Amino acid sequence: DQARATVPVNATVAAETSAAAADEAAAAREAGFRCVKLKVGTADSPEEERGRVAAVRGALGPDVKLRLDANGAWTVEQAVRTIRSLAEFGLEYIEQPVAPGDLRGMARVRRDAGVPIAADEDVSGVEAARRVLEAGAADTLVIKPMVVGGLRPAMEIAAMAGHAGVSVVVTTTVDAGVGVAAALHLAAALPEEGPACGLATGSLLAGDIVVWPLVVRAGRMALPDGPGLSVELDEAALVRYATVTREVTA
Questions:
Q1: Residue 202 gets which letter from DSSP?
Q2: With a cut of 50, which residues of the chain have pLDDT below it?
Q3: Can you say whether the dihedral through the CA atoms of 35, 163, 173, 101 is positive or negative?
Q4: Active-site positions?
Q5: Residue 7 CB contacts under 8 Å (≥ 6 apart), including other chains
Q6: Comparing C-alpha atoms, which of 2, 3, 6 is closest to residue 214?
Q7: Distances from the Cα of 121 to the Cαs of 38, 92, 173, in angstroms?
Q8: String of DSSP letters for 184-199
Q9: For the whole model, what pTM was predicted?
Q10: H or E stretch including 167?
C-alpha cells in the first residue's frame, strides 16, 4: 500500500500550574495542533487535577482532542475515581493510568472509568503487547520503535492490535532526528490513519544530528522526500555531541 505523505501529531503540555498549562495549550491550538496530550498524576489533590484539566480544555476549545498521560501514577481505585471526575472534559483517552505490570488493574479501569485507556509502558515488546491485548487492558497501544526492538517488531505489534480492533499511536522516546524519521515512516506505513502520533518532540532537544530536522505544520508532520529514512546526518553535530558525551562519561 502507498504510505501517507503526512501524519497527524499531538502537542504535549507538561506545565505544572493551571495557568501555564493553559498557555501551552493555547499556543498548541494556535500552531494548528488538533490533539494535545496533558501530563497528569502529579497534582496534590483531585481538585487541583480537575482544575488543571479544566483550564487546558478551556484553552483548547471543544474541537481540539485532549488526551491525558498519567505515567502509571494512580492506584486502580484512584484512577477510576479521578477519570470519572474528568470525563466531562471530552477526553480522547487516558494513557497508562496505573503502574506497568498491573494488567488486571488496568483492565478494571478500562471497564469502570468510562474513558478509553491507552497502554504505554506496558508495551515493551511483542510479547508484552500480546499480554495487554489478551488481558483486554487497553483501547489503544502506544508503540515506541526504540523500546520494542525496532521497526519490524513495531509493525508486528501494530498488526496484532489491528486484528484485535485496538488502535495504535506511534511515538518517539524523545529521539534525535534519525529516530523520529524512523517512527514517522512507521506511522505513515500503517494500514489506516489512527489517532495523532507522539512525534513532535524535536523541540525538547538542545540540538539535533540531522541537517534538516523534521518539522510540524498545522498539526501534521510530512515524510521527507528521499531514499531510506530520508535524513542527512550533520557531521559537525555528530562530532560535537560525541565530544560532549565522552566528556560527560569520562
A1: G
A2: 250
A3: positive
A4: 39, 144
A5: 184, 187, 188, 193, 197, 199, 220, 221, 223
A6: 6
A7: 17, 18, 11
A8: HHHHHHSSS--SPBB-
A9: 0.89
A10: strand 167-170
